[in-house]
């Protein structure tokens, strides 16, 4: 009898360990990669899902088929927070043609940022490259005075070291108001991030430096995510910066740097520890119909080759390079133009400062990461990747505006060997 019971128990264990059989077809396109051997992330549906742990072999997220599903959440989302009914994202773009007066911030990204500062209740943690806006300094000092934990990590050369220069001095004002400011410990590489975390609930990121040029003269973007899950990811990185865990030796938690908000998969990457460019190239390689890009600095040859290969495979690829940077011999403007890609140089007399790729009218890649090896391998940078057609439509609208203002490459200026 005991042998029968043991045999039955053993059979049950074996059955429980068998792989789940599901009829749900696998997606034809992977939204984005989380490692070099990616897991397929399927957006949340009404059917609960089991998220299998990541191993050396790619895993597939499969719908649960039991009456009582077991849901294994990644560390960053161990405590699920419901998405509020209100929209969980906002997107802003600078408009240097019409909103270009720093003495009148109405309608500007600066005005939006001050609203978030004024609304903060407990903490404002900042990792931002440079700073010279007095009204933002006023708002931060007021937040500190009402008890908000305000702290800022910046770059040394482009942050604290030049704070005594003309039209600067705002970091000095912050510190005089009791706000702690740190730089990146004298590293030659850049602390090039531009992200803000409010109350561990709201994350502000994109390409925009908090400067007169960044907001009133350059083309830039901001995306705001209202999610404690995403904020937790950025808070973890911010703590690394604050405690001087910098560069390639900084710990990577890339497998836990994602969430699904209201059906939208979101991946966050940090350089240099997360090999961000490898992940960006992997997404480009997966493009099915279209690729659009806006690039302040584009010197990464493997990314250019990936885009060329997709164009040769029938994907509609085009983009705009920042004019001054693309005249450098290291720029991939020549590589892409000589391969027949429709590329232009921007028409902004200041800078096109965006770092954006939009894929298949649905996936948006943005953040502080320029498309260069130094940004990927040395700097402190962040990238956010979202698969959301509504957000992508706004970025494509901005892309089209910049494309229409951009200039074709003058005949004879590039020699293709």
Q: Could you characterize what this model shows?
A:
The protein has 13 helices and 18 strands. Helix 2 runs parallel beside helix 3, helix 3 packs parallel to helix 5 and helix 8 packs parallel to helix 9. With 417 residues, it is α+β, with helices and mostly antiparallel strands. It starts with a helix and ends in a 9-residue tail after the last strand. The protein folds into two domains: 140 residues, Endonuclease, Chain A, CATH 3.30.870; 154 residues, Endonuclease, Chain A. The N terminus is likely disordered. It has a nine-stranded mixed β-sheet, sandwiched between helices. A seven-stranded mixed β-sheet has the order 3-9-8-7-4-5-6, with helices on both faces.
What is the CATH level 1 assignment of the largest domain? Alpha Beta
Number of structural units classed as domains = 2
How many helices in DSSP terms?
13
Q: How many E strands? A: 18
CATH homologous superfamily classification of the largest domain? Endonuclease Chain A
Strand content: 15-25%
Which class of secondary structure composition applies to the elements? alpha+beta
**Strand order across the largest sheet:** 10-11-17-16-15-12-13-14-18
How would you sum up the major sheet? 9 strands, mixed
Unreliably modeled segments? 1-31, 33-85
Question: What's the CATH architecture of the largest domain?
Answer: 2-Layer Sandwich
Mean pLDDT: 84
Radius of gyration: 23 Å
Report the principal-axis shape.
globular
Distance separating the two termini: 83 Å
Helical content stands at: 25-40%
CATH topology of the largest domain: Endonuclease, Chain A
């Amino acid at each position: 009898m005991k042998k029968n019971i043991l045999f039955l128990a053993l059979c049950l264990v074996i059955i429980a360990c068998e792989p789940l059989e599901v009829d749900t077809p696998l997606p034809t396109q992977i939204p984005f990669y989380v490692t070099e051997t990616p897991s397929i992330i399927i957006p949340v549906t009404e059917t609960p899902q089991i998220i299998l742990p990541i191993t050396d072999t790619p895993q597939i997220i499969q719908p649960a088929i039991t009456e009582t599903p077991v849901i294994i959440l990644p560390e960053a989302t161990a405590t699920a927070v419901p998405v509020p009914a209100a929209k969980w994202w906002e997107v802003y773009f600078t408009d240097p043609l019409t909103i270009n007066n720093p003495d009148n911030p109405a309608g500007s990204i600066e005005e939006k940022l001050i609203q978030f500062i004024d609304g903060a209740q407990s903490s404002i943690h900042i990792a931002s490259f440079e700073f010279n806006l007095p009204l933002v300094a006023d708002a931060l000092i007021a937040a500190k005075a009402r008890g908000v934990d305000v702290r800022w990590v910046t770059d040394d050369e482009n942050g604290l070291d030049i704070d005594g220069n003309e039209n600067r001095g705002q970091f000095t004002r912050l510190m005089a108001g009791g706000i702690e400011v740190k730089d990146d410990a004298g590293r030659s590489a850049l602390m090039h991030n531009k992200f803000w975390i409010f109350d561990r609930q709201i994350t502000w990121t994109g390409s925009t430096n908090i400067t007169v040029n960044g907001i009133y003269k350059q083309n830039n973007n901001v995306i705001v995510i209202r999610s404690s899950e995403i904020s937790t990811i950025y808070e973890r990185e911010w703590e690394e910066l604050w405690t001087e865990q910098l560069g390639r030796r900084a710990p990577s938690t890339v497998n836990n740097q994602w969430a699904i908000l209201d059906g939208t998969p979101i991946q966050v990457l940090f350089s240099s520890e997360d090999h961000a460019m490898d992940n960006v190239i992997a997404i480009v390689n997966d493009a099915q119909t279209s690729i659009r890009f806006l690039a302040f600095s584009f010197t990464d040859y493997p990314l250019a080759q990936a885009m060329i290969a997709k164009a040769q495979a029938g994907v509609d690829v085009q983009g705009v390079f920042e004019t001054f940077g693309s005249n450098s011999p290291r720029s991939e403007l020549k590589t892409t133009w000589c391969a027949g890609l429709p590329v232009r140089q921007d028409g902004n007399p200041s800078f096109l400062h965006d770092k954006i790729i939009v894929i298949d009218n649905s996936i948006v890649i943005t953040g502080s990461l320029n498309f260069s090896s130094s940004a990927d391998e040395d700097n402190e940078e962040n990238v956010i990747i979202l698969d959301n057609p509504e957000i992508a439509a706004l970025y494509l609208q901005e892309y089209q505006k910049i494309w229409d203002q951009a200039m074709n490459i003058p005949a004879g200026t590039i020699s293709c060997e």
